Input
Amino acid sequence: MTSLGIFQILIYFLVILALTKPVGAFMARVFQGQRTFLHPALRWLETLVYKLSGVREDEEQHWTRYAGALIAFSFFSFLFTYVIQRMQGLLPFNPQHFGAGNVSPDLSFNTAVSFVTNTNWQAYAGESTISYLVQMAALTVQNFLSAGAGMAIAIALVRGFSRQQSRTIGNFWVDVTRAIVYILLPLSLIGALFLSSQGVIQNFSSYTKAITVEGATQTIAQGPIASQEAIKMIGTNGGGFLNANSAHPFENPTPLTNFGQMLMIFIIPAGLTYTFGKMVGNTRQGWAIFAAVSIMFLAGAFFAYWAEQSGNPILTKLGLENHATALQAGGNMEGKETRFGIAATALFATITTDASCGAVIAMHDSFTALGGMVPLFNMMTGEVIFGGVGAGLYGILLFAIKAVFIAGLMVGRTPEYLGKKIEKKEVKMAMLAVIATAAAILVFSGITDVAHFSEKGYWNAPGAAVANTNNSGPHGFSEILYSYTSGTNNNGSAFAGINVNTPWYNLTLGLAMLIGRFLFLLPLLAAAGSLAAKKKLAATSGTFPTDGPLFVGLLIGTVIIIGALTFFPALSLGPIVEHYLMQGGKLF
Output
């Protein structure tokens, strides 16, 4: 590792740290219905939404109604996104004349589920598949709606801790509206203007035909990219307008835009930790959560950077120079953009998989075995290391419930968190969420690894292409494992050395995304309802403090140990064994 690379990572973290309190305090005021500096400009829009949709701002919901609203909202969002894709050939803003033939029923299903669940997994190349109208009216809109829904669920769970003897946890429609109007829209507008000023394109032009210096014809994609790029990052969505995602200069042209995009990914998840502390009446609780996820984030970032800067041991044994010098970056530059380099690439890969974003500036498939294991394991934790907008907070609170339960078992007393007894129902709901997602990852990965498919992706007799990967051995297994881990944990990034636009992958990954979203959210809402109905207990000398270093360590240990125990066998078959094979001078 170089001193400049270490400096980049630390500067990024310090900027995030500086933004956490002001952003978090602002969001706390928004979700508590208090007036902010944006209300004079945007309050009319909020009230207009309520009036047009028939929502009563002062009416709250029981957790079952809150969950029902989430399901209904998501279902109709899915239906609209699916239909508009299938109809794109009949709709305007389609200069490339893409039609239903570009988006098969199974691909349309996968894409609709992907964007509604905030996964933004892409089994297609945007510039050769999706019209401008679908990119804007379906995909970009879902970037706002799915992110807003995630924030609403997080706030509902926070209310479960902050309230006592209450039958309600807020109003889903009000929470989503406030998240979009006061937080996502203003930040996205600022982000889009910043990106446009740096060279990210925003137009409705037809694709450009250019003649290269060799005399060949090259097609250069155009489109309304900056507007989608901003919410893609701020909403931790990750779905790129172009197939190369943020590795493409039209989406991410300079190191400055790259740094800005990394800030956009973490700004809301980091701020929500302070929002949590503010809403429960003890900001130290929020800073404890922030400290735990920060330690895990920095550990992952530096480990990934070390692995990538160490380079490929096979090439080292061949006598190639692998150290950074004044004339070369050294390390493993395969699949990376020279304008970003190894440190920024390792940092971006860590951030995007910590935060359920899925945007990429490099091909994770080209990382070293251990470097690629970092983003994979980040997702296997449930993406609670800052996590997505809303998703990270409710995910880490789920682990906090398990952490205090473990602490209670150790000392032989009923566990408490923020004055609420953590009893059988809360623990069951927390474990159901973890088991459902882990089962989806491991079961689908296992079936896909041993199943046989035809070239078109249908089930076939033995002897056909297996799993549609471009690699055999442990790396091929890692590609499959990464796909289902990414889908189930609603991330959307990929190892990319695998053809997933087949009926099998489109349908099973779509199902994995639904499991990862709703079988995680619904148990948490049930837990929120149970917690809100309880009475708060006064702290005593026997109460386990949850705002100090001991709890931070326990929380980190719970996240790491549960992730390791659940997925270590799978990791051993993939990146770990691949690493040892590379050390022995073999690719597979």
